[in-house]
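Two quick folds needed for the group meeting slides. Do the first one here.
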Amino acid sequence: MIVNIKALIFVLAIAAMVFLFGKPLALLFGNEPDFSRRRNVWFVLTVTAFLSPNFWLFTLVAIPVLVWAGRKDTNPVALYLILFHVIPPIPIDIPVVGIKTLFALDNYRLLSFCVLIPAAFRLRRQKDSTRIRGLTAMDFSIFAFGLLQLVNYVPPDLPDHSILQDSATNVLRRSLLFFVDVYVLYFVVSRSCNNRRAIVDSLSAFCLGSAIMASVAVFETFRSWLLYTNIGQRWGIPAAYGSQYGVYFFREGFLRAQASAGHSLSLGYILAIAFGFWLYLKSHVKSRWHIAVAILFWLGLLASQARGPMLSAVGIYFAFSVLGPRAVPRMVKAGAIVALLIGAASLTPFGGRIIDSIPYFGQSTDRASVDYRQRLAERSWELIQLHPFLGDPLAMTQMEDLRQGEGIIDLVNTYAAVTLFYGSIGLVLFLAVIILGLFKAFRARQKILRRDPDLARLGDCLMACLFGTLFIIATTSFVTDSEKLFYLVAGLAAAYAYLGKVSERG
């Protein structure tokens, strides 16, 4: 318990500094009552999580606090995003008499039930012509992919390798969870962010929460101490989730930070998207603080040592530069800045080791990881050819030779995983929401480019993050945060596209 209190003290001290220095920046995009309420809720939930002996005591405090804050906040999406990773997303099964479990509850689902679903009901009652009304092509693409997931039941990869059979009860459970985990998030984001201020307030809230995570990550790496691991260990982590949670992974002698993300890859993904959001927000910051924020995100990325997200962040930066005005000079400037930063990092022991660990770029190419990905790609392609259209829900049973030491088959490429289980039809339906988001955002951006350059740059930011998301999911499994961020960015793109249409009418 003493170790947990020490970790709590460090987390609170780091967060207090971030909130103190981040407040002037946050108030550029939101209002003070919302900022103060979100900050206070963050502190209450963090303290409760560290001191609660079990998850259910935490929920006893969290549920009324989240419901109250969601009703008070002028932008529930921003509240959701600043609390997105207030604690690690540790799934705890809800016990029910007569069956083993109802479903697992974690921070994501708590936020969905307490913040997003009430916001969705309020939106349904509003008669607002400035937001999307009815269902769009993006909505139908999400529903279609969700329906395919219900039809093609993919059994979980259990430690004992048993194959669970589907049932009517399980179909209802999976339908509910698809609605709670995926569609509610997309619906509220795409309908609630119906003006420029709501969108930038949401981006700002995400960046503020990510700045706390980046600061914690830097501390974790240099102190070789994961601050949040004791929470899950006290609450009792399910075996399927706990095989890697809280494990101290080192690369080139440095601890891979996790902060409250639960995994270093998750942390890297979050910080890469936060960096992409900040590329737009920084244009509204007059002081030099915008450089410090960007550096903080990159220090967090380096602390996570997540190579895919780091390359994705570079890609987001280049995409944002290409999409903006004066693309060629911006590209040259972006290339010079990236080369300078890589050169400077390579001169430091920490940065040099990270660069050396990037496959095909550094001196130490981490052949085990590269070889595994190549074997996974080859085996996936063999199996995809056997069931090219609708996939094979039992494909995992034919990949036992790819099971790693942690006891899992790590499907580190989302495109391969989707095509394996749901075929090429599933891949098209899966990607349709992002492709449609890109198309709609680009069309809206082109129409408002001359009339409102700042709103056009907001579109450039969202499109760059969409491109970055497409790259990131090629290097990681589509679970927890990657799924949430996929539909979050798609929802923001849909909201932006409709905002462009409304502004054109005005």
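Then this one, please, same format:
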Amino acid sequence: MLYDLSKITQARTKRASSWDKSGKNHDCWHIPPGTTQLLADIKGPGMITHIWMTQSNPDQDFFRKVLLRVYWEDEPEPSILVPIGDFFCLGHSIVNSFQSLPFTASARDNNVFGGAVALNCYLSMPFNKSARIELINESEEEHIVYFYIDYEEYDKSFGDDIGRLHACFRRENPTTGWGHEIEANSPPKGIPNLSDENNYLLLDAEGEGQFIGFNLSVTNLQKRLKTPHERSWWGEGDEMFFIDGEQWPPSVHGTGSEDAFGQAYGMQRNAFIYNGSSIYENDTGGYQTSYVFYITNPVRFRKSLRASIEHGHANHLSNEQSSVAYWYQREPHKTFGILPVLQRIPLVRGFVFPEGSKTDPIPIVLDEHMKEAKELWETRYKTKLEPGRY
């Protein structure tokens, strides 16, 4: 990357931005509620090298209600369709200052819903024919945005070995857990999970490309029995990446949620260039957003990739989870949509489910191991943790 700075490249540097064409200082665009605003429509060949954005909206949930939508190569379906906060690794419509290699954020007030923040993306976004970038305002308020889209124009097209950037948003509110009352790392342990059937799905892609990372946001809904004023541990979920339609076991299998994000023994208050947390649960009373980027170790696939992660060991927890997966691939891509605006709203104001925000539950059938674990927890282990009984 730094070596490339010394390489003289035949390109024209340009920028699409919200600058005031009258020469005055009103350098923002106003997007009415319920409308779509075209930010840039660029003809190729070219590459977007940097996006900066800041905004204002009185709705504290607006980072989930305003969508970033990007089309490459005149395709009818978008390759990027993500709420703006989550695209820049800030979940729950919460803002916080953090630094990673692909994304950075600088907030005026940290760990607040819907606050003022500067957002940066440094992922390269090449294209041959066209790039179309839009914001969709699905909030009930006017959305004010300042933005830069920095890009380069080239004389020659990219070859077939260059993929296009994709990003998709998913959410389960809440995940379907078979034993949410059981605290992580507490007996009974040893429940087997030898499939990804009930895992939280991060990405289901078809084609040829490489998975470069994801962020995961968790609203921890479980309180500790022993210390009810604290939230329990939401992790112990293994990531599983099934490449090119393979059956069990997957080519990539993890050992726990914090391990998937390059941490250990829970998450810590850090934001490194490849991994860490942009929102830390101990600063927010239970809201967490963690990220990992496979910059040096992308997950390559030729036909398909199914990436998922357990929610609690063997999927026993019922917390709210949402995510963004990032990948490059050849076009065309498997189309994906996004949940309606009500089902994207974060759990704010005391972990209350806003009306219409719950997603459809994924059916789960309790097997004998799960039934035994629930019974043992209720009859043998729960009483040891209840206040006044230890």
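Slide caption for protein two: The mean pLDDT is 94.
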